[in-house]
Design brief:
This protein is mainly β. 7% of the residues lie in helices and 50% in strands. It has one domain (3-292, 299-525, 537-816): Maltoporin, Chain A (Beta Barrel). The protein is built from 7 helices and 41 strands. The strands form 8 sheets. The chain has a 23-stranded antiparallel sheet that branches. The termini are far apart.
């Protein structure tokens, strides 16, 4: 890096200390007026919604961005408490939770990122209260006391920075209220047999300082239920969640305010893979697991029904339970599945009025995530004696991330305004895991040198540092025409080391893997990017505007840190530098970029009782980052797709009907997403022209919300959502050579409907409510992702599939005063 860049990094880091010191020192008497919900509430009264898609409060009808919004009221009405619950509300959004590596994935319009390796940034950025969180594993955590969720579709680098090549998911938590409020709710869910209790206290501590303290606890007995035929000590896998947040909002003067948010989420789950099943394929018969090295088969313990909410993950083999020294899993039983996550997230935002027309914003963020998990990965089956054959794989994931954003924005009375800003991120990700691939301990016994029963212990940490600067401007060319745009420059560096402190002697010997004590690295990656954006908007009146936007996006590449002790790793320390460099290069993947544009129409009709919006889009993604598990060589393949093109139309509407309290709304998406250039898969197939995964051609929803006054003190509510999703491919690339007779190369999820509904009765002002809530009422089960199963027998047509959550039915009581 140049001296200039290093100085810029230090400047941005130092600005975080300035923000903290400034917030602590600036104390002066003034009326407390910090309430981010007030403008939002007022806007909703006017049938408008306020969003922050360009790092400033704007009406959804005015902002030239394709944004889907879910209000805090909707989140409460339907018990939405995790990202996967959002998919029925937002067409072309996909969320899959569970699995190793990244632990989850999120996609928009068919553009996703790998859920296998945590070395991949998400193509859809995840932003919590202004803080960009660089791990998809955060999708596993719960959210609570949320004011609004916004999903920005299409590239968004100008205002949100890197890793926004496909869009942004933003979660805005509730802020302190100007008057004291105490609210709570408790619910019981019948299908999974779980209860939830939570609430908040909010109000002004002084004239200048507001506080909001919110917390929720959830305990589910049957989060996942195992099949009766699965060998297991416990067939009911439960889950507990604690979510807590402290918010302090300080506004001592008219030209200074600061907001501190401290979040903590503790999740304890008895399953990692969750809703993961085995699809039996065209022959409709379960097939055994198979250890190719020893020619040893295990009778299957899964059935062919992936729609019964019963799952095939067995408990682990007791004989595979001696964990290598250096892997700390606490007091957890290694023969059982578990997934324990502790997340701490803090943000401090300070807004300083430099003048009547200029505002300086400093936003500091800190994220610390600790995760340990253990589960079986399709090693499902049993021996001839009936012993369970679930082969455990314990992981320890850590993340420590610091971000600092600084920006200056103008509010001139004239035709021109601007924003100038910078961003810095530093993060350290740890990945320590004991894994199994060949399982010599089952046949030959523990490693004679150490007594360990796992195949190896891998230590593959990742460090990353990014810096970016942007400038944007907005110019009123006439009273009705506005030209806006800008450019962001990003520079990112990543580095990883690969170590195998322990490798079973049989694997490092006869199988030729690296020996115990192997260490290589650091393997480094760096890249920089310029991402411009231009928008032209025409607003002939207050109820209609049309815009055309040119946008680009960027997601940094990196180094795959999910490697096994075979393949390219064997050559990283080769005596020939050219061979070692080639091995390191094979682990790198290139940055992903996007370019294209959209045309949007925003309109309000019938005296603003009807909102009707539409967006036509066309984007091309180059070097889309792909990772697959290659069962033939039991290794991970990391590469870049040649080109993916997405195009289509998004439409959404909201009608406040003449019937008192009745609102009808909905959204519709048409999507054409496919590979549009030569793309050779690991099986040697050219996928040019094939549709992208999780990219339904048609998807949409219709929602009906009706609040019926019964008296001055009683109101009856009805809420419902019907969502439709067209069929789609469930995997990015063909997992094996395509077989036209069975079509097994392309597992397709058929089209489906889901139905959510809620009825409530209570006080019109929310002093008390009693609700009956149902999500996925028809218990529709659909496939999110599919892949060849580890330990699959040669020629197996079984597929490991991740599914959605089944039906949930809640009874809930709430109060507020």
């Amino acid at each position: 890096m140049t001296t200039l860049t290093n100085n810029a990094r230090r400047l941005l880091k130092a600005s975080g200390s300035v923000a903290a010191i400034g917030a602590a020192m600036m104390v002066a008497p003034a009326a407390y007026a910090q309430d981010a919900e007030a403008p939002l509430a007022q806007a909703e009264n006017d049938n408008l919604i306020i969003v922050t898609a360009r790092k400033q409060e704007e009406s959804l009808q005015d902002v030239p961005v394709a944004v889907a919004v879910i209000s805090g009221e909707t989140i409460d009405d339907f018990r939405i408490d995790e990202a996967a619950d959002l998919v029925s509300r937002i067409p072309a959004l996909s969320v899959q939770v569970g699995g190793s590596g990244a632990g989850a994935q999120i996609g928009i319009r068919g553009i996703n990122s790998s859920n296998i390796s945590n070395a991949f940034d998400s193509a859809v950025a995840i932003n919590v209260d202004g803080i960009a969180v660089s791990t998809q594993r955060i999708l596993q955590t719960a959210f609570f006391d949320v004011a609004q969720v916004e999903v920005l579709k299409g590239p968004q680098p100008l205002f949100f920075g890197k890793s926004t090549s496909a869009g942004v998911l933003t979660i805005r938590s509730a802020n302190p209220t100007p008057d004291w409020e105490v609210a709570g709710r408790a619910s019981y869910e019948f299908e999974e047999q779980g209860y939830t209790i939570g609430g908040y206290v909010s109000g002004p501590l002084t004239d200048t300082l507001g506080i909001r303290l919110a917390a929720e606890y959830q305990d589910i007995d049957k989060f996942v239920e195992l099949l009766p035929i699965v060998p297991a000590q416990d067939r009911d896998k439960g889950l507990t969640n604690f979510v807590g947040r402290l918010t302090l909002a300080f506004e001592p003067t008219d030209n200074f305010d600061a907001t501190l948010k401290i979040n903590y989420n503790e999740q304890r789950s008895e399953t990692l893979n969750g809703f993961t099943d085995l699809f039996c394929g065209p022959n409709n018969a379960p097939e055994p697991s198979f250890l190719a090295v020893f020619g040893l088969a295990f009778a299957p313990t899964h059935d062919c029904n992936i729609n019964d909410n019963r799952y095939p993950g067995p408990d682990g083999l007791a004989s595979i339970s001696v964990v290598p020294t250096g892997l700390d899993i606490g007091n957890r039983d290694i023969t059982q599945a578990f997934n324990d996550t502790d997340l701490f997230l803090a943000s401090l935002e300070a807004n300083i009025g430099l003048s009547d027309t200029l505002t300086l914003t400093l936003l500091s963020g800190y994220v610390e995530l600790d995760n340990i998990y253990n589960d079986t990965f399709n090693s499902t089956g049993q021996t001839a004696t009936g012993a369970a054959a679930g082969f455990a794989a314990p992981f320890v994931n850590t993340l420590e991330q610091y971000t600092q954003e600084i920006r200056i924005s103008s509010d001139f009375a004239g035709p021109f305004n601007f924003q100038v800003g910078g961003f810095y991120e530093s993060r350290e990700s740890g990945l320590l895991t004991a894994q199994n691939a060949f399982l010599p301990s089952i046949v030959l016994g523990p490693d004679p040198a150490t007594g360990f029963t796992f195949d190896w212990l891998a230590d593959r940490p990742l460090s990353a540092e990014a810096i970016s600067f942007y400038v944007s401007g907005s110019l009123d060319l006439t009273d009705t025409v506005n030209l806006s745009g800008g450019i962001r420059w990003t520079d990112e560096e990543k580095s990883t080391t690969i170590a195998f402190p322990y490798v079973h002697s049989f694997i490092s010997g006869p199988l030729g893997a690296v020996p115990s004590g192997f260490f290589a690295g650091p393997i480094e990656f760096s890249d920089s990017n310029f991402s411009p954006e231009v928008v032209l908007k025409y607003t002939p009146n207050d109820d209609f505007n049309i815009y055309a936007a040119f946008k680009t996006g960027f997601k940094s590449g990196g180094v795959d840190n999910n490697t096994l002790p075979t393949g390219a790793v064997l050559l990283l320390n080769d005596s020939d530098p050219a061979v070692a460099d080639a091995a390191a290069e094979s682990l790198r993947f290139d940055s992903e970029t996007s370019i294209g544009g959209e045309i949007g129409i925003r309109s309000q009709l019938a005296n603003r009782s009807l909102t009707l919006n539409a967006t036509v889009f066309y984007y091309v993604f180059d070097d889309q980052q792909i990772q697959n598990f290659d069962v033939a060589i039991f290794n991970f393949s990391t590469f870049n797709a040649g080109q993916t093109t997405t195009q289509g139309v998004d439409v959404d509407w909201r009608w406040s009907t003449p019937v008192d309290g009745l609102t009808i709304s909905g959204a519709l998406s048409y999507l054409d997403a496919e590979f549009t250039d030569t793309f050779i898969s690991v099986q040697g197939l050219d996928l040019d022209g094939r549709d992208a995964a999780r990219a339904p051609q048609w998807s949409g929803n219709v929602a009906v919300d009706w609040n019926i006054p019964i008296s001055n003190s009683l109101e009856f509510g009805i809420n419902s959502v019907v969502a439709y999703t067209d069929d789609y491919f469930t995997t990015t690339t063909n997992p094996q050579a395509f077989d036209p007779a069975t079509n097994i190369g392309d597992l397709v999820q058929d089209s489906y409907f889901t139905i959510d509904g809620a009825v409530s009765i209570g006080d019109p002002d929310g002093k008390w409510t009693l609700s009956l809530i149902g999500t996925n009422l028809t218990d529709e089960i659909f496939i999110n992702t599919s892949a060849p199963p580890p330990f699959g027998a040669p020629g197996t047509d079984d597929r490991l599939v991740t599914l959605n959550r089944g039906r949930q039915v809640f009874v809930e009581v709430g109060f507020k005063f």
